[in-house]
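Dear support,

I submitted the protein below through the web form. The confirmation email said the job was done, but the results page showed an empty box. After a refresh the structure appeared. I'm attaching both so you can tell me whether what I see now is the final result or a partial one.
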Amino acid sequence: MKQLCTLLLVVLGLGLRAQSKGDFHKWAASPPMGWNSWDCFGPTVTEAEVKANADYMAKHLKAYGWEYVVVDIRWYISNDKAHGYNETNAEYNIDEYGRFIPAVNRFPSAAGGKGFKPLADYLHSKGLKFGIHMMRGIPVVAVKRGLPIKGTKVTAKDIYSEEEQCKWLKDMYTIVPGKEGAQEYYNSLFDMYASWGLDFVKVDDLSAPIYHAGEIEMIRKAIDRTGRKILLSTSPGETPIAQGEHIQQHANMWRTVDDFWDAWEPLNAHFEVFERWNKWRATGAWPDGDMLPLGRIGIRAERGNPRMTKFTKDEQYTLMTLWSIFRSPLMFGGNLPDNDPFTLSLLTNKNVLAVLKNSSNNKPLLNDAEKAIWTADAPGASARYVAVFNKATDRSKITVDLTQIGGAKACTVTDLWTGKVLGKFTGTFSPEINPHGAGLYKITL
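What the results page shows now:
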């Protein structure tokens, strides 16, 4: 009897662990929406700038589902620079256990060992969520100093490898999976992040040019053991498509492209990229087309000069329409307080955001050099969403075969961007679309 009880406890324990492993997908039931400092400020953002964007989000965007505020790369450097990184005489801020901590000259509330907790508390008080960027691995400076791994008898020197070091930023060494202290280092890192009140982490150099499956799994374990709902976003891309199943099982979102900026060519390339990744989208596991380089960007960025986005208004409609019909996370890159009315209108259209949040069975019907059509099911059985895209340089009609989406009889078409009912259509619907522009419609069957 005792053996049977022991066996039942073991089975129940395995079941609970398996259930816990899958729970993190529930933390992102729809694609995450937020702001990230990268496109504006590169590695130089300050606490005041983060708060200014948070204040704007709380006032103008929170009601529409925007909630994450993410401090991007190198918040631990006191003297970083725009248009690249300071790797010549970088002033690192690091604790006694080899964990980077915020630069106090940029984040004054972190003084006295408080870390990012005061900033996270500020965001939480506004009903928002706090995120940070980190590089995979262990700091080079921690290895050089032989700093101890918290809770172990080993040091940073015992868990690192110089092989597969990041090619574009030399702050970190690889952590070797299976080494004594390797998992414990990631555990100590996320214990600290959880104590700060972290809700989102973007981990860089995980996906490309090398897919670091071992470190991804260590990070997943470290997050899960904290008991805090910290969304995991992996970067940069393109994540190898062959690793689709693995990344879907371990992350809430993952990059499908390299860094995306405000030019038509990389935007146009997303049609094929999203078609390629469409099968791997699942609730809580979102292929990520990267940030939205909209509004005022390039203020102190890693590349480019201060500017309003170079995308035309039609290209901005294409960007928001494509990300919504594909259900990519929306991470806005512009400095929110500098938004003009048009930019704000792109972010606060409830009809369009409903497609992002609530559509299903999303898929491309057509994708060629001149045009593209995507469709999705709307909630309930009597409506469909249709997105049409004109990739050409001339205004043209794009014909949608309504019978392909179940429109056997006359269908009512509503323009979701304008909210206008366009009328009833039978058989086909052929809107005229501006060059590089898009239309998004609800088809009531």
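Response: this is the final, complete result; the empty box was a page-load delay. The longest strand covers residues 360-367.
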